Amino acid sequence: MATTQAPPNPTQRTVSRPLAVVLGLLTAFGPISMDLYLPALPALTADLHAGTSTAQLTVSACLIGLAFGQIVAGPLSDRFGRRRPLLIGVVAYVAACALCAASPSIEALIGARLVQGLAGSVGIVIAQAAGRDLYSGGKLVRYYGRLAVLGGLAAIIGPVIGGQLTAFTDWRGTFVFLGIVGIGILAASAFIFRETLPTGLRAPGSLSHTLQSFARLLADRVFVASLLVTGFAGAVIFAYLAGATFVLQGIYGLTPQEYAFAFGLNSLGYMVFGFVSGRLSERWSERGTLALGLVMGVAGAGFLLVTAVLHLPLIAVIASLFTMVSGMAMTAPPSTSLALSHYREIAGTASSLLGLTRFAFGGVAAPLVGLGGEHDATALGVVTLAAAVLAAVSFWFVAGRRVATGA
Fold first, then answer.
1. What pLDDT does 10 receive?
2. Would you call 4 helix, strand, or coil by DSSP?
3. Closest listed residue to residue 249, CA positions, set 238, 237, 236, 263
């Protein structure tokens, strides 16, 4: 298969290392906000005199904010440029962190977490859209490879960092820490990030134009298939995040230290294979790399289900999780590039749909892994295998149709 090349980008220019770092941070700080405080969740529940299910709504609220905030931030960035919405979003994020830290009740914390998710979603959208402003062709898919690594890695290692923070502070301190990180990102954005979308390329701001843009994207089979791949891959990762601790600690009896090692191994796999995917997509084939990642993901999830049903040893579980997570990491750069490469003028709007789908599918999948109880991994195997297979079916539509410029 030949690599899909985007039309030449007349404004493509060299991106400084500081700007590249800022764009990476924008990708990471939304996902890491979602789960960094999870190790302190039991203490938070007790401190605010809340039920366990009610306390878990603080996770759901942030996830909903991250998902639906992108639908607003994306079109706004197409209309007003990337820099102004970004700065407003980061300021709102810092304020939301302060509200979280000062929340007197669980209800107030749930509301503050919703705002935190909405504000954090801006960085995710801007990072993807700015990349489309700055890059094209092979450089674009390589850039999305880096974003995939950072975004996925942030979601995976967030609890690890949060666990270390609990040794020094309480749950309120974790939100103070996030606020300090937000202030640092705000300063970096203010001094380093310059507008990437020229005024002449900005979209009209009417609601009708935004709706037309959504309709245009959803009428494109390649975009829709890439969108579904992104969503179902997100479902696999979020299901893994929700269920791995119960499987490895509850069923196989790993200590917290042993679990951290296994979790770190999968994080390393996500990082390495996400990086390799960006390079492989650039030098070989976007759709070929996407297919390879899906094969790995389906194989890993299928083996995980077999392991759960047959109660195979721990090494089988670790191998299947590593293969599954690494495969999903490989799908992110090519699917994002295929989705955005022909939509430079509405890259923010297109990015917002990708983000909404990823978090929405993940939010649906995560609770399902607990249906089998704490001592049965079958539900995790079924959910991840179903999502991986559906991602592969969606890919078939990408591979089965030539993109507009030929493949």
1. 45
2. coil
3. 263
Q: Residue 372 has what pLDDT? A: 66
- 46-60: average pLDDT: 79
**CATH 1.20.1250.20 in the chain, residue ranges:** 15-200, 203-407
User: CA-CA distance, 286 to 231, in Å (whole number)?
Assistant: 18
| Cα distance from N-terminal residue to C-terminal residue, the chain | 7
Here the tokens at position 144 are 């999305």
CB atoms within 10 A of CB 34: 28
DSSP string, 275-299: HHHHHHHHHT-HHHHHHHHHHHHHH
Q: Considering just the CA atoms, what is the radius of gyration of the chain in Å?
A: 20
What pLDDT score does 1 carry?
39
Cα(210)–Cα(151) distance, rounded to whole angstroms? Answer: 26
Cα 174 to Cα 297: distance, rounded to the nearest angstrom: 33
CA gap 74, 262 in Å, rounded: 36
- Cβ proximity of 185 and 90 under 8 Å: yes
Residue keyed to tokens 């791949």: 229
Res. 173: pLDDT tops 60:
yes
Check residue 399 and give its pLDDT.
Answer: 60
The pLDDT value given to residue 251: 82
Q: How far apart are CA 117 and CA 73, in angstroms?
A: 12
Reported as a single tens digit per residue, the pLDDT across 161-172 is 887 887 888 889
Provide CATH code, domain 203-407: 1.20.1250.20
Name the token pair of 213: 């843009």
Whether 222 shows a pLDDT value over 90: the answer reads no
Q: Check whether 240 has a pLDDT greater than 50.
A: yes
Q: Which amino acid is at 2?
A: A
CATH fold group of domain 15-200: Growth Hormone; Chain: A; (1.20.1250)
